[in-house]
Design a protein that fits this description.
6 helices; about 25% strand
Amino acid sequence: MIYEDREIMIRKVLPALPSTKSGCEIGVYAGEFAQTLMRVAKPDKLILIDAWELFRPILVSADANGNNPVILPGTVLRGIVEKKFSSNNSVQIMHGWSADCIPRIENASLDWVYIDADHSYEGCLRDLLLVEEKMKEDSFIMGHDYEFNTQKCRDSESWSFGVGKAVDEFCAKRGWHIVAKGNDGCVSYCLSKNPNRLSAN
């Protein structure tokens, strides 16, 4: 299934799950998409993982289409996210490397995850493999930057990601399937163990 953008994708695919109450975003930046996930999925618990300034002192991110880049200090971004969710008891912020934080999540506890962190092939594959055992039997692994939609991304040649290769290898080796995409400029993906998960609902 191909949807116009990642928010529509998530709105359409999550109702196919038995539960959407426990989710995780890996790679948070300033927390805008985390707010979208809270609004759309309405989880009882949302875990947010980001290294922020541990990765680089200054961080660059663009919008969902890969346009309009923003450059901010990691410490500032961390403060923005902490302030946004300071009064929300449903949100747990884990500050650190995904390789250190993901193992601290209870196994088989997540209904869904959205990965938008290390975009290298090695980093993305590592996050996928680490998060797999944290997923419930019937769950979705989602993420950003699988490929480019050049009709929306004005300058795709400026970005170099290994996400697509990592996702394809993970699916081939671990038995997951791409069941949906959100067709922003930087395309999102949705994985399921059941290749017919969405068509059956």
